Amino acid sequence: MSSGLYTQLLDVACGAFLLAAVIVLWRRELAAIVRVFALQGVALAAIAVLLGAHEERWDLIAVGLGVGVLRAGVLPYLMRRALTALAADRGSEEVRETQPLVNVAASLLTAALLTLLAYAVARPLTQLNPTPATRALPVGLAVVLIGFFVLVTRRRALAQVVGFLLLDNGITATAFLATSGVPLIVELGVSFDVLLAVLVLQILTTRIREAFGTTDIDDLRELHD
Description:
Elements: H1 3-26, H2 30-55, H3 58-90, H4 104-128, H5 132-135, H6 137-153, H7 157-179, H8 184-212, H9 217-224
């Protein structure tokens, strides 16, 4: 793969990765949010595969393919199952983020500001070794910040799960871009931890819905009060 083609493909993959996080803030239908998260998983896998192909590292390509299977296949499948159960039990009431703590316009503006902050913070790092991968490093940091923003501003439990997974995707992308990949055993361990966390969160979400009839965090807080 030529250097120019590698740089262009990496820029496209990183752009799609960041765009998916922004679209999560824009959309309110949980089904659409899960689909966008799956597409972000594809972009994350593409980043790892491109890095591996450029450096001729088959272990990194294998990690990228494994990340794609987990982040674009297994995790979205689990979330779609939870969403189907919510829709069957509560209809359309539980499948939309109807009242986020921050509206869509303010969320998109915040995403832009967080992206600028990520580029400002990462600038000294990119100047140390200005390769195509390190120049894309702010994208991973921006997705980390956007994922945390989704986590703290969404009221539906499933939307907060997506925020947690966006945060994890951003950390994984940052590791790939900053260090040209992580060891296979480390990525497998982290991926299994994330899968276990999502399974636990899915079970908790189902039990909460069965017990209280809702997964709205504010309603659950009122029950506690």
